[in-house]
Amino acid sequence: MPDNTSSASEAKAAGTRVVTFGIAAVILILGGAGVFLLLNLPDANAFNARVEQLFIDNTDLTSIAEIKLLEILAQSGTAFSEVLAGYRVVIFVLLLFATGLLIACLVFVVTIILLNRRIGTIERQGIQVSTLTINREENIVVLNDMEFKLTTAAVETMSVLAEARMDGDVMTGAEIEAMISGKRPEDCEEASGATRIKRLRDALGNQMVSELLIKTVARQGYVLAIDQKAISVV
Prior knowledge:
By secondary structure, the protein is an alpha+beta fold. About 70% of the residues lie in helices and about 10% in strands.
């Protein structure tokens, strides 16, 4: 239990650091790119300034057609300024969207990595069970805060495994069948005990939970992956 808790805390702390540094890096990179773009875009009034300079440099243009041409240039400069200002706003909004999407992707990636590590820890060390209560009279098994209503046969199988776990034993299928049926292990078949284990796992419902709760030890038998002190049989 302490190892699992320490591992989970370390993984969470590492994930938090990665997210923090990642968000800072994303903001710095996109912020730098945004500043670079905005600084290198031409000034919105650049065209108007050039048209104004044309007016100053060509004061001798006095005909109506020439004046009209200069007015058209001035209007074009104003339109260009408005379009360029709009471009700046669009670039700024796109940068905000890009920042949000990159941060969200970073958080999702880190979350997936942490979940994969957590699942790997569970697969290696089993489920963290704080309490397991078996009520034979009511055929109920309470696992942490989850209550399972099982058949009498499933409860008997769970009780046998719990008692063996409290004694630190690993039971074969034949031994499980012998404990329940009252026969000698030599007179029981391994397949009968394996069938009881399968039915118990099916009764628990969740495949991952049941597979991790009831461990199969190669060439030895079956055992509950639970701390002995967490088991209570009533």
